[in-house]
Amino acid sequence: MRKLFLVVSSLALSLFVFFYMNPAVHAQSFGWGYKKNSDHKVPEIGKYRDMLDKYGAYYADHSGDKVVYLTFDNGYEQGYTDDILDVLKAEDVPATFFVTGHYVKSEPDLVKRMANEGHIIGNHSYHHPDLTILTKDSMKMELEELEKAVAAITDQKQLKYMRPPKGVFNERSLKWANDLGYIHIFWSLAFADWNTKAQKGGQYAFDQIMKQMHPGAIILLHTVSSDNADALSKLIKELKSQGYQFKSLDDLVLKDMLPKAIYGF
User: Fold this and answer.
1) How confident is the model over 197-210, as pLDDT tens digits?
2) Cβ neighbours of residue 196 closer than 8 Å, sequence gap 6 or more
3) CATH entry, 2-263, from 3.30.70.1060, 3.20.20.370, 3.30.230.10, 3.30.428.10
4) Hey, which of 120, 165, 197, 235 would disulfide with 96, CB 3.0 to 4.6 Å?
């Protein structure tokens, strides 16, 4: 009996050490999501809002201004990024491209073009892991390795914004990113555009975006989508005709910081 007690106690102690001394095991993680609406308003995100506010993260501009922030996730190339950059240049529209290590390594000329044409390069991590299961040191390594890769080929030596792979996050990963000087950027408008085998045409992409459009939207798009490449010019022209302005994430953060600097809150 005493031997059984010792075995059970030892097992319990081992489990305690494993689950409570290893922070990558027991922290709850979340997949980014929001409640869509048909009123063209910023979608609600429920309990996520307090977490984002606590750690200076963004998913939309809540000012009510008719502004749009274009963001693209780039994990690999499908041949459409040049076309997208051509449209952005012709329309004088800024964007942020969240890139991975694979993308920087395989498409350095495109990354250089993004930076040279005034777009922001964002950090999507080097290897695209689930950041919520990493230690803080491993997360730091993922972000710093990507930053160094971008700095080696562009003038953007420091990356300010990050987007977690697959939108997976928790309070700990938000805090750690904040500690490391990064700002999490989620999104308030997206659709299933990443499946290259299920493209439905530029009109489909246009309709999906316009159906969800709202003032202050941070739009997530993927450059692997031929639909997005086909729709982008029409989309930008239509939104401009409706009085929307296209701004960069720097504008969003600056807008948010000014009242705090002036009024102290």
Assistant:
1) 999 999 999 999 99
2) 78, 224, 225, 226
3) 3.20.20.370
4) 120
Contact (Cβ atoms closer than 8 angstroms) between residue 51 and residue 174? yes
Tokens of 17: 């050490």
Model pLDDT for residues 85-142, shown as the tens digit of each residue: 999 999 999 999 999 999 999 999 999 999 999 999 999 999 999 999 999 999 999 9
- Catalytic annotation on 222? yes
Selecting among 61, 73, 193, 230, the annotated active-site residue is 73
The verdict on whether 73 is a catalytic residue reads yes
Q: Which two tokens stand for residue 98?
A: 């969240």
Residue for token digits 């299920």? 198
Q: Using CA atoms in the order 154, 155, 159, 163, what is the torsion angle rounded to 10 degrees? A: -40
Which residue is catalytic, options 61, 119, 222, 230?
222
DSSP-based three-state secondary structure for 219? strand
Q: What whole-number distance in Å separates Cα of residue 161 and Cα of residue 177? A: 10
pTM of the model: 0.88
Q: At 169, which helix (H) or strand (E)?
A: strand 168-169
Confidence band (pLDDT; 50, 70, 90) for 262?
Answer: low
DSSP bridge pairs for 144: none
Handedness of CA 136, 114, 245, 36 (dihedral sign): negative
Chain segment 195-251, per-residue pLDDT in tens = 999 999 999 999 999 999 999 999 999 999 999 999 999 999 999 999 999 999 999
The DSSP H or E segment spanning 206 is helix 202-212
Domain boundaries, the chain: 2-263
What's 67's DSSP letter? Answer: E
